[in-house]
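Box S2. Input/output pair 1.
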Amino acid sequence: MPRKRGNPGLKGQLLEKSIEAYIMALETINRLSIKYRVEAFTYLICNAWELLLKAKIIEDTSDRRSIFYSMTEQPRPRSLALRDCLGKVFSNDKDPVRANIERVADLRDAAAHLITSQVPVGVLGLLQACVLNYHKLLGVWFSISLSDRVPVGMMTLVYDFQPEQFTLANLQLRRKLGRESVAYLAGFEAGLRAEHESLGRTTDYSINLTYHLALVEKPRDADIVLMKGATGTATGIVEVPKDSSRTHPYRQKELLDALNKALQGSATVNQYDILCIVRQHDIQKRPEFYYKGKVLGSPGQYSETFLDWLKTHMERDPEFFKKARQSFRDTRLATREKRPTKS
């Protein structure tokens, strides 16, 4: 009997379904007219990964039973869940690809309970890495290329080029998502940054999505370029001023009052605590958290997103501020020790 072409058997069926789910995920996330696109994408890309991992497990074990729980654990045959598959394929729980998929799965799980139809750019970077990791490992594990079915451009996630609308400091986005979703996404994004740093900022975990603007005669590196018009008239640049009293409504005193009120006596935060957090987490370099006017003497202002971020970290770790104080002291001590002594 002639051998069947393609990938016969359970492993082959898993691969075919996995690829279909992957393509559907890309088609969904890149269609801006779909309002449910982010949630649908997370469901589909997680399904694609689960099927791919099961095919990999069968490939490694040569046993189709290896993707099922034992009958003593389950009353009826049931195949492994995504996170159990990850544990079998990626034994190192610090593997950036595994960590990436786990965070995307967390977002998928949250989508069942919260509105996540739009996510900040930092989360899109996580999703972008997830897409590229799948394509890479599909080739490494099974020597399958999707170049004939998926154009390279389709693997780049599409979103409207209005970066300020994709930060949690944007009031329109906050109103659309609702308080619970904003609080969740603020903590989720903060967790992504921390994990990305701990993994050495590898692109297997997250990819920074940025646009470069250039005002040049011969643009080379810019993604978007402002040049002279066809008639020789210089193109104008229009800046729309933001109302900082709405985007960043808290001065330090108001921030402390709001935070201590939210903590309801479980802890008391003071100005030194805020100083330690601001210094240790480079808060002043994050416009979604901090704003300072250019007029001499203008006070620093903090956003509602920063308040949500602080509350989320306190809920996750009651010693969050204590650790920040200690880290700040250690940093200052190390800086002093590095200073040259006077002879």
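Box S3. Input/output pair 2.
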Amino acid sequence: MPAPVASRVFDPHATEAWLARTPPGPAPWLHEEVGRRMAQRLSFVKRRPATVVDWWASLGGATALLREQYPDARVIEVEAEPRLVRLRETQGSAPWWSPRRWRRESAPTPVTEHDAQTLGADLLWANMVLHWAPDPEAQFGSWHRALAIDGFLMFSCLGPDTVRELRALYERQGWGPPGAEFVDMHDLGDMLVHAGFDDPVMDMETVRLTWDDPARCLAELRTLGRNAHPGRAPGCRTPRWRRRLLEALAPAGAAVGITFEIVYGHAFKGLPRSRGGTTTEVSLADMRAMVRGRKAAP
């Protein structure tokens, strides 16, 4: 078993503050596009999950794709913050006068990360959320606990080549880091194995987006999150600094091009690994589910 990879240089409080202020609404366009591309990979998985967990559903923006792919499955949405769960409950409830309430058709209630640990999901889907985990290996461990035996994990996240143009610009100007570093896909694969997953498969693609207006570029980038590097500039930037940034992004009115490295991964949760001189414990329910799943496999 490989040694664990060192934790990231990351300020979790910056992420917590961002999530606390983020309203549940449309996911960023890039997240929706990555979710669509990742959903195409579900065709390679022959098993039909009965329970699907959509991790940080509001941010991932792919719940509708999952319901379309698995119309007979129970799709459970997990939210990053209890506040978001409460807001989603309020938004999802039908008014007292609505026929939906008479027919008991209110939207399913989302759950918290803590509650998701006991769901025993057949598929855990995490679209564009792993790069917000301060410790990705610990996050993999959490996902491993939320899965049933023979369940599978599919995830996507940003890789280290993301916003390389912005990083180079900030370095030239001496402005400090524009964001936290992202983890290499090979390190993520090692973390998956160390967290107990079997047969991890990793790959990546590069997406380059262009804008004709640097202000629009910055507005789009803000929808993707906040600067979670502990060495970021303290306090607020000035309007003068913003003008300098816009001019540096698009000198002489040129188009702005930003690179995003998208990392994809999937892996299975097998039986607990046994070591010499130890006892492996598996619940009867997990063993029965594993046997049923393997008998149903083609």
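Caption for Box S3: The two ends are 30 Å apart (CA to CA). Residues 157 and 227 are 16 Å apart (CA to CA).
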